[in-house]
Amino acid sequence: MNAILDRHIAAAADPAAAANRLDDLRRDADVRKRIDALPDEMLGRLVHLISFSRFLHHFIGRHPEVLSLLGRPPCFEEDGCGEIGDMDALRLFKYRELLKITWMDLCDSGGYERILALLSRLAEFTVGQVLRSSIETGQHDFIERELCVFALGKLGAGELNYSSDIDLVFVSANVEESRYGIHELQQLAQDTIRRFNRTLEDKGAEGFLYRVDLKLRPWGKSGPLFMTVDETENYYEASSDAWERFAWLRGRPVAGALALGRDLKQRLAPFIYRRSLSTEDLHKFVEIKNEMARVRNRRGHWNVKVGQGGIRDLEFFIQILQIVNASQHEALQTTNTLEALQGLQAAGFVTEREVLEITHSYLFLRRLENHLQMMDERQVHELPDEEQQRLIIARSLNIPGASDDEVLDAFENRLFASRSIAQSYFERILPAGMNGA
């Protein structure tokens, strides 16, 4: 057995960490028995996983029974999941499913779009569970008919990060369409939203559910926790904020009164997908692009999200083309980045070669971002400069190579290619002569 373990340790992302963490797990006789019973291929992947994910190593140590979940599909994709009312149980559920998704990532199973979708589906499931637990018994009709939770950002796009805030906006039914009076409606909605946010962010023995970011709501941090459908529509009808249009490109209802949410999203379509753009609109987009360039030039380590040649460069390219063309092309009225890219190809705005080039770059950068966050379940976006740390990340991504130098060279070459592609599309998106970056 020792020879087998030595072989798997040597192949792990971080052999030194693999040896220490495996030894730590195997001190417990029950855990050792479970590990030693794993087939050789699964054992190798387990050693690989714990070598670069410290928090999952600890999770397995606390719950060795989760080793039986390796290779199994996520539960929330099936019908028998039911409702989880106890929040400690829900936190445990989250980490069990996160372990399954990490395993799929490790196995390169089913394309990386699938991993992003599963991370989003887990968050949606959790949001729904917490929302139902945040209302008093007998008042569930309120959240089913009168209060909708919208997701924006990565969750709205259906491509959530491994460790990310979830951007949420809350909308209620209009007072005249509610079975509650105005004061009762306000109190009930505010109390529900506060309990909901607190429950998502509270830490238990297993960790937390999700960090919630509410700054994308109308008027940002100074705005009310929720507004009615009509108030929300009126707010965005009067808005000239280009950032808000970008945010709502990814807005979709994910929990609560979904029919109400779909109605509002339809009402907001003229704001999000304008039929014509003025010179002022274009200048606002240029200002956004220039601000993105200024921000990334102020940073130290390269940032996979907002750095030069990072994820935001490709997203900006796609979203500008969506905003400009979506009113005439319904296929562009999607919240998902890669679905929008496919729509751009169908409408003739990009070629098949460009779609493949952007897709390969985007998914590599998104997987790199997730692996940075997979180590400690922290919202990390900066790639370390230290060669040894970059090697561990490269090996976690299963970058091939006969030696450490070859692995690192292959990683750097792929990173350079992906960044170059992202930067080139970012630089070409706006008219020549308008960009003052």
Task: Give a description of the structure.
The chain is mainly alpha-helical and about 425 residues long. It has 3 domains: about 1-70, no CATH class; about 70-95 and about 105-270, Beta Polymerase, domain 2 (2-Layer Sandwich), CATH 3.30.460.10; about 280-430, Four Helix Bundle (Hemerythrin (Met), subunit A) (Up-down Bundle). The chain has 19 helices and 5 strands. It has helices at about 1-10, 15-25, 30-35, 40-50, 55-60, 85-105, 110-135, 140-145, 155, 180-200, 230-240, 240-250, 260-270, 280-295, 310-325, 335-345, 350-375, 385-395, 405-430, and strands at about 145-150, 165-170, 210-215, 225-230, 250-255. Strands 1, 2, 3, 4 and 5 form a 5-stranded mixed β-sheet that branches. Helix 1 packs across helix 2 and helix 18 (about 385-395) crosses helix 19. The longest helix has 25 residues, at about 405-430. About 40% of the residues are buried.
Topology:
Elements: H1 2-11, H2 15-26, H3 29-36, H4 40-52, H5 54-62, H6 87-106, H7 112-133, H8 140-145, E1 147-152, H9 153-157, E2 166-172, H10 182-201, E3 212-213, E4 226-228, H11 229-238, H12 242-248, E5 252-256, H13 258-272, H14 279-297, H15 311-325, H16 337-346, H17 352-374, H18 387-396, H19 404-428
Helix pairs in contact: 1-2, 1-4, 2-4, 4-5, 6-7, 7-10, 11-13, 15-16, 15-19, 17-19, 18-19
CATH fold label of the largest domain: Beta Polymerase, domain 2
CATH class of the largest domain reads Alpha Beta
Approximate helicity band:
55-70%
Sequence stretches where pLDDT stays below 50 over 5 or more residues: 432-437
CATH architecture tag of the largest domain? 2-Layer Sandwich
Q: Mean pLDDT, rounded to whole units?
A: 91
Oligomer: single chain
Label the overall shape. Answer: globular
Spell out the helices and strands N to C: HHHHHHHHEHEHEEHHEHHHHHHH
